[in-house]
Specification:
The complex is a heterodimer of chains A (about 300) and B (about 60). Chain A is an alpha/beta fold and about 300 residues long. Chain A is globular and about 50 Å long. Chain A has a domain at about 1-205: Spore Coat Polysaccharide Biosynthesis Protein SpsA, Chain A (Alpha-Beta Complex), CATH 3.90.550.10. In chain A, helix 5 (about 125-150) crosses helix 9 and helix 9 packs antiparallel against helix 10. Chain A has helices at about 10-25, 40-50, 65-75, 100-105, 125-150, 175-185, 205-220, 225, 235-250, 255-280, and strands at about 1-5, 30-35, 55-60, 85-90, 90-95, 110-120, 160-165, 190-200. Chain B is mainly beta. Classes of the chains: A alpha/beta (about 300), B mainly beta (about 60).
Chain lengths: ~300, ~60
């Protein structure tokens, strides 16, 4: 049994697309798609549009994504190690082969967690689109290497999957795509990368949204220092410098893109300085359905 | 038998992820951001693994 959990926040049209991207796949295993959203009107909209009995709407109490996932891990959990959770978001959509690519990876019993490959739907002709394309290309390179070396790496919340019977809860105060893989790793499981399971992501297209989203991400990751200080970090300032700086400067294809990369260095540095300053002022990461809306990442709503 | 979260006690057995787990710790919080009280339950499964469960106080649990 595969439980596909789509966490969304008042984005009915894009969530509908996210659900349909799974329904049109040829999936051999039994599966169920659960959309978790705190807005009942999203449920009404989706129930009108989706007549498939494998679709379920779960009205979230509004306590945040991590809370909702904990609840569903406990409600939908099972004893069967071949049962899976596939976790994704309502504002992204997956490629037609994604479930097969992910389930194939779990044929290896040592694999506990599998992450998909995020791809940007933004244009390379815009600065923010180009920044995302560079970032995703860097992530792809690092994950391929770490998976090959059987080392720990964090997953993408946009699309990742786990075995059902291994963990039943995780801390709320950090990002699930970091702590969940680590909990599996601690139990002796490996993390794998399904680079053919693609997930298409709309990214911020202005400075304010870009900065808000990144600050929130970095804060969530910095919380890991308190929650799991022994966890090997793949997303950190030092790793960005070590793994990303030289990689990024080799990506531009023209002078315009070269300037954008230089700006990206300063932007990343600024966001870390801003985040660390806020953390010093005790403005820590709080789980919730996005306290600050990132409007430009909404693809259809 | 179903019981609301607020009516559970230490020692009660509840169903979590299809497994039976015994309640080891139970706390009832103040009213949270969604206007309801929350129960924080630590339950132990057969394999001694502990699970943290947070639910609204009126959440229906399957009990044994």
């Amino acid at each position: 049994m595969i439980d596909i959990i789509i966490t969304s926040y008042k984005e009915p049209n894009s969530t509908l697309r996210a659900v349909n991207a799974f329904l049109k796949q040829k999936i051999k295993e039994d599966f169920r798609i659960t959309v978790v959203d705190p807005f009942p009107e999203v449920g009404e909209f989706l129930k009108k549009k989706i007549k498939d009995t494998r679709f379920v709407f779960y009205l979230d109490s509004g306590e945040g994504k991590a809370y909702a996932l904990n609840l569903l891990f406990q409600e939908y959990g099972s004893d069967n190690k071949n049962d899976l959770f596939i976790l994704t978001d309502g504002d992204v959509y997956v490629s037609e082969n994604s479930v097969k690519e992910i389930t194939d990876k779990f044929k290896d019993e040592k694999i506990g967690c599998v992450t998909g490959k995020p791809l940007s739907v933004d244009s390379r002709n815009t600065k923010y689109g180009f920044w995302t394309i560079v970032a995703f290309a860097g992530i792809d390179k690092v994950r391929k290497r770490l998976a090959k070396e059987k080392k720990f790496f964090e997953c993408s919340g946009y699309l990742f999957a786990i075995r059902k019977s291994v963990i039943f809860d995780f801390p709320l105060e950090t990002s699930e795509d970091s702590i969940i893989p680590y909990l599996f790793w601690k139990k002796g499981y490996l993390i794998d990368y399904a680079d053919k399971a693609k997930v298409y992501v709309k990214n911020p297209s202005n400075w304010k949204d870009w900065l808000n989203q990144k600050v929130r991400n970095v804060k969530a990751h910095e919380n890991l220092n308190k929650i799991a200080p022994e966890m090997p970090r793949t997303k950190s300032l030092m790793n960005e410098i070590k793994e990303g700086a030289f990689f990024a400067i080799r990506q531009p294809k023209n002078l315009k893109e070269f300037f954008w990369v230089i700006q990206l260095y300063f932007a990343r540095l600024y966001l870390y300085i801003k985040t660390f300053k806020e953390l010093k002022k005790k403005e820590a990461y709080k789980d919730g359905w996005r306290e600050t809306e990132i409007e430009s990442t909404k693809p259809l709503d | 038998m179903k019981k609301q979260a607020k009516d559970l006690k230490i020692g009660d057995k509840i169903k979590v992820a299809g497994k039976i787990a015994m309640i080891k710790e139970f706390e009832l919080s103040d009213i949270g951001k969604q206007g309801s009280k929350k129960c924080r339950i630590v339950a132990e499964m057969d394999n001694s693994e502990k699970v943290v469960i947070i639910r609204p106080d009126n959440y229906p649990f399957d009990t044994e």
